[in-house]
Structures are given as structure tokens and as C-alpha cells.
Give the backbone structure.
Amino acid sequence: MENTSDTVRNRAKRLRRTMGLSERRLWRLLRANQLDGLHFRRQHPLGPFFLDFYCHAARLVVEVDGGAHSIPGRSEQDRKRDQWLDERGVSTLRLPDHLVENDINGALFEIRRAITTRLGTTEQP
């Protein structure tokens, strides 16, 4: 029988292999500390959740929300998830997939703004 850490690791690997177009596009710009030297992880497990992107230094989650997030009841699930993370000192930034697809610079601006807020800096990190 597979232990829990192996199960989590395997699920994270599977999620990384099946990322959507918007997630892949954003990952190309976040990986290898390309965004202002900050380290991001993709499909990072935290508690019962897998986070699209996570910056530990800023304790910031970046979620790319596609059409599935407009399904009835999904916004309530997202709210509960965000609340669970917030109670643990982790903030969530939700970006619609169309922003990532059509205005990647706008998406990066929103991420930088959230990081600046989280780190308490007055200038862009």
C-alpha cells in the first residue's frame, strides 16, 4: 500500500503534467525565480489542497481560475478554501484564466502587487 506522502507526491506530479494552457503560460514566467527573484512552486500541496502556484516567502497562493470556477457551488468551495488558507496566514490571489491568456503583463502586475502587500514593501519586489 502506498503511504500518504507518496500519494500526495504522485498526485502533485499528475497535476503538474495536466496543467491547463493558462497555468503553463504563467508557470513559464514564474519558474526558476524569474519573477523578481521569488521562488514559486506549482501544484504545491498544503493541508487538503493543491495550490496552483505558491510563493512561500510571501505566503501567497496564485490560483488561475478557468470556466470550472463558474459552476454552481464552486465559488462557495473556493471561498471556504481561501478562508482555510487565510486562517493559516496564507493569502490567495485569484486570476481569471482569460487575464493570463490575453494580458500576461497585467497578470504579473497583479501578482507583484499582491506580493508587495504581503511583504509590506513600498516598492515592487
